[in-house]
């Protein structure tokens, strides 16, 4: 099976209206159903009109459409991970004709409350035609002030294969970009304005945080009661504004906002709205001043910046180094202690003195080596870091991901290795599963080594940022299972043979997909450290996705590498010298008990196994229910007489 979207496969899935999705509308269920029916008819009418204008010519709509994934091959070659949002709506996958898809849908409905079955679209139209249908409908929706959820649901019912109601609300801008670049798609989507994530967060620029404050110049100013409304000022004010609609404000990180906290609620109010309105804010925070004064205060924040932003950090002092080493030592001690405790518990389970549950509970809370660099939340705050600042989550040591001031004393300042030494855990960066940081790791990544013609002087722990990770594998018929991965060249122990590529999905999405992949022949999920989700190579990837499992003698070991931008990567490193043509393996580290099922290659058999298990579970529940029903009247007569109807006696 594959999560491939088979364009014309018809599946009798769930097409009921989920009224819970319409929460917040003033309509009752009856009215919603009626409105949806009315809109369905309207959409049909508009579609038929546009179908004449844009008949379905053979139009290869897009190369990167997921629908276009080649059947049989099943995935697209990709060179980097692609972050994708959660998909709570499952488009029903196809296993094969011998499997009961209704049953699978029933099982999966626990995990995916809205399963979109493969109903056929009512009309086969091109993307171009669909764009015009949507545009026309949206104009009418706007005019009639209809709840957009009703429209999107109706649209989905006519064109289910184009996406869930939720997805329907997101595709218009990309269609507009493709078919009418001059159209401002957002003007047709007024309902999305408040729903999009308008909460502005700080973004870090060297020693400053920046905010973008959108200006409300388009807002009608008639409502402001102040005689000196800031909008009455000449709009080409002293600020040289680069952005027509907003103002970029930089505030120094080292500024202690303390003492000016009373401005924070106002700033938050202002920045969290799409239409930052000083007049409205002034009304709300009356004691702070008039809208003109507040406007000037915000402009003043930008004006205050006179110094240039530092691009490079200061050099690490011996004292900082000591601080970092101390933290590392303490962390290693903690890890060693918990490993010993784990061994003790395992022995206890074997000898019967400890329970399996205790062991599992301990394992799930146990810190792993990967926690070192991200065991504290990266801090983002004003003022200096450390125990003296209650906003700082890093009490003793800032992680490489912290957004603190470049001159922060607690900041991770990079490793001190020479080029070529950054591969083992002796390197402070490699120890933290971090790529070396040019500009901070001043020895291995110095200008000198970067410019050097001698290849061996280049720091190997910067392969990802240099986009120099090779893929030394190709797929071929495996001796282990299905397709396998084979070396294209001779490699030496320690060489990187490729990066595992896939869709980067959240942990919640992974849990859902895990349920789905139970019905598949292969599972391409690869876990990232520290709850950062998983990479799923089911639909995109490279030859690393074909690496099979071996617990006895794996020839590759996966290694994590984190980048300063927060992205994590998985590199496959050779565990031994190997010749070209060797099939490579890694240890999947599946729990022993699930290995047997995970490696049942026959997906029909696997799917059937889960269906049988589910049937068995249902039978048990039914049996239990019947047993309870049989018991109940008997118990009642014995324990208490049947209740008389209220009010009779
Ligand atoms: C990441 S894929 C590996 C490529 C896969 N063999 C293919 O044909 O696409 C992982 C899947 O391969 C199969 N697999 C990997 N190692 C295996 C093994 N040692 N024994 C049986 N099946 C294995 C399992 O079905 C697993 O879900």
Keyphrases for this structure?
single chain, 649 residues, alpha/beta, 4 domains, four-stranded mixed β-sheet, 33% helix, globular, disordered C terminus, binds S-adenosylmethionine, coiled coil, chromatin binding
Question: Can you walk through the features of this model?
Answer:
It is globular, with a radius of gyration of 30 Å. The protein has 649 residues and is of the alpha/beta class. It has helices spanning 29-53, 101-108, 127-144, 148-158, 165-179, 192-195, 264-271, 278-284, 291-303, 318-351, 356-365, 428-431, 447-451, 507-517, 592-598, 603-639, and strands spanning 76-77, 82-83, 89-91, 114-116, 203-205, 208-214, 246-252, 473-477, 483-487, 496-500, 503-505, 525-527, 534-536, 540-541, 548-549, 556-562, 568-574, 583-586. 33% of the residues lie in helices and 11% in strands. A hairpin with a 5-residue loop joins strand 8 (473-477) and strand 9. S-adenosylmethionine binds next to strand 15.
SSE map:
Blueprint: H1 29-53, E1 76-77, E2 82-83, E3 89-91, H2 101-108, E4 114-116, H3 127-144, H4 148-158, H5 165-179, H6 192-195, E5 203-205, E6 208-214, E7 246-252, H7 264-271, H8 278-284, H9 291-303, H10 318-351, H11 356-365, H12 428-431, H13 447-451, E8 473-477, E9 483-487, E10 496-500, E11 503-505, H14 507-517, E12 525-527, E13 534-536, E14 540-541, E15 548-549, E16 556-562, E17 568-574, E18 583-586, H15 592-598, H16 603-639
Parallel strand pairs: 1-14, 2-11, 3-4, 15-18
Antiparallel strand pairs: 5-6, 6-7, 8-9, 9-18, 10-17, 11-13, 12-13, 16-17
Helix pairs in contact: 1-3, 1-4, 3-5, 4-5, 8-9, 10-11
């Amino acid at each position: 099976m594959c999560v491939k979207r088979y364009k014309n496969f018809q599946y009798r899935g769930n097409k009921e209206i989920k009224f819970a999705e319409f929460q917040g509308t003033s309509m009752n269920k009856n009215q919603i159903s009626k409105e949806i029916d009315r809109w369905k008819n309207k959409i049909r009418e508009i579609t038929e009109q546009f179908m004449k204008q844009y008949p379905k010519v053979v139009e290869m709509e897009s190369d990167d459409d997921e629908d276009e994934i080649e059947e049989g091959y099943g995935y697209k070659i990709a060179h980097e991970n692609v972050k994708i949002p959660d998909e709570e709506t499952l488009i029903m996958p196809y296993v094969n004709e011998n499997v009961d898809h209704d049953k699978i849908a029933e099982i999966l409905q626990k995990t995916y409350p809205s399963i979109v079955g493969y109903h056929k679209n009512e009309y086969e139209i091109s993307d171009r035609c669909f764009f015009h249908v949507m545009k026309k409908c949206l104009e009418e929706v706007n005019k009639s002030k209809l709840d957009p959820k009703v429209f999107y649901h109706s649209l989905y019912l006519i064109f289910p294969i184009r996406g869930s109601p939720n997805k329907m609300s997101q595709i218009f801008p990309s269609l507009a970009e493709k078919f009418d670049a001059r159209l401002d798609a957002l003007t047709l989507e007024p309902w999305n304005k408040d729903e999009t994530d308008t909460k502005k967060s700080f973004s870090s620029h060297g020693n400053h945080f920046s905010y973008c404050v959108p200006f409300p110049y388009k807002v009608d100013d008639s409502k402001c009661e102040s005689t000196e409304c800031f909008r009455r000022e000449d709009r080409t004010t002293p600020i040289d504004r680069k952005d027509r609609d907003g103002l970029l404000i930089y505030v120094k990180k080292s500024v202690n906002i303390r003492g000016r906290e009373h401005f924070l609620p106002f700033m938050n109010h202002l920045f969290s709205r799409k239409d930052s309105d000083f007049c409205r804010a002034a009304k709300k925070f009356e004691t702070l001043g008039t809208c003109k004064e507040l406007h000037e205060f915000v402009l003043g924040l930008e004006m205050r910046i006179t110094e240039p932003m530092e691009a490079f950090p200061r050099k690490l002092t011996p004292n900082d180094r000591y601080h970092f080493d101390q933290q590392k030592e303490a962390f290693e001690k903690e890890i060693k202690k918990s490993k010993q405790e784990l061994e003790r518990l395992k022995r206890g389970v074997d000898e019967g003195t400890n329970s399996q549950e205790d062991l599992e509970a301990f394992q799930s809370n146990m810190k792993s080596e990967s926690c070192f660099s991200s065991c504290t939340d990266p801090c983002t705050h004003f003022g200096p870091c450390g125990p003296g600042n209650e906003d700082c989550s890093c009490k003793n040591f800032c992680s490489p991901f912290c957004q603190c001031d470049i001159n922060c004393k607690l900041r991770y300042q990079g490793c001190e290795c020479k080029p070529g030494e950054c591969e083992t855990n002796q390197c402070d960066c490699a120890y933290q599963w971090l790529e070396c940081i040019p500009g901070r790791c001043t020895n291995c990544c110095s200008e000198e080594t970067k410019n050097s013609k001698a290849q061996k002087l280049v720091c190997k722990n910067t392969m990802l940022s240099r986009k120099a990770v090779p893929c030394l594998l190709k797929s071929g018929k495996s001796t282990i299972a299905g397709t396998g991965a084979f070396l294209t060249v001779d490699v030496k122990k320690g060489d990187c043979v490729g990066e595992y590529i896939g869709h980067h999905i959240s942990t919640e999405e992974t849990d859902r997909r895990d349920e789905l992949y139970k019905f598949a022949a292969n599972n391409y999920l690869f876990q990232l450290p520290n709850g950062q989700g998983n990479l799923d190579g089911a639909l995109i990837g490279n030859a690393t996705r074909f690496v099979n499992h071996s617990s006895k003698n794996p020839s590759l070991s996966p290694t994590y590498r984190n980048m300063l931008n927060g992205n994590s990567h998985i590199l496959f490193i050779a565990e031994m010298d190997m010749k070209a043509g060797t099939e490579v393996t890694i240890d999947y580290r599946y729990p022993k008990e699930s290995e047997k099922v995970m490696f049942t290659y026959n997906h029909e058999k696997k799917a059937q196994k889960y269906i049988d298990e589910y049937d068995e579970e249902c039978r048990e529940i039914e049996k239990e229910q019947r047993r309870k029903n049989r018991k109940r009247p008997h118990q009642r007569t014995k324990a208490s007489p049947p209740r008389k109807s209220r009010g009779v006696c």
